[in-house]
Amino acid sequence: MRITFCCAQTQAEPWLMDLRAALPGVDVSLWQPGAPPADYAIVWAPPQAFFDEQPQLKAAFNIGAGVDALLRLNIAPTTQLVRLDDAGMAVQMAEYVCHALIRHYRQFADYETQQHSSTWSQRAIPLRSQMPVGIMGLGVLGQRVARAVAQFDFPVNGWSRSAKQVDGVRCFHGEQGFSDFLAASKVLVSVLPSTPQTRDLLNRRTLSQLKKGGYLINVARGVQVVEDDLLLLLNEGHLAGAALDVFRTEPLPSAHPLWSHPKVTVTPHIAALTLRQESIAQIAAKIADVEAGKAVAGTVDRQRGY
Fold it and tell me: pTM for this structure?
């Protein structure tokens, strides 16, 4: 068996060493143009030339949660595309969302400002019942985020394309349920995949449907948010703030107004980083399933986009 590794902006050697340790007897190598045909690939942001040279691949394993970059490429239909189910990313995302939510709810940014002027002033804590949190996307990551938020006794709403039931979550689905979901939420968290249907989904019309004083947390993809519309709603006061980890252009250009907006917290796409050991263990198990002819969890539906 031969595995090829093609991951842009990723230090290859630690991955290659750990893959060889996890898969003894397997030929694991870094892809270079003209490399021999492989059975499996581990990829992140590969070029089109990679798939042009490797049309025989049984499966390509994406080491990030999002597969939108892969779906823009021309890949042989016989190559299974497989994403990681979790591999340590879900708990990181839950941490990020809970931190952003509680920082906003408990007004910690205001206390930080007070510290700079040596101001001792306590602020009232709003009722949690007045801070319903809406989670967009109820897959593995979204459900983990919803469970974590619920532990802090916030009301939790959830929205997905198709109907789902999640304990402790008021679930909405489909186009009909989307407006009702937004109207029922004050904090909006996006964990949705990037698809043509989710591009520009968070715009002035949809974000205006949140309860007044709403707050946006985006840990999904930057193209889902129309940034000019978000800035407008922040400046008008309909939205109280936003915590943004992803952007339409990354890195976020230094002159972009989101950097300096007083109601916005910016982080550099770190909400859920790929953990190498967990990822390799999951990929090894998935390869064993493919070899055994079993169904593989995380197989991408190219029509749906995730």
Answer: 0.92
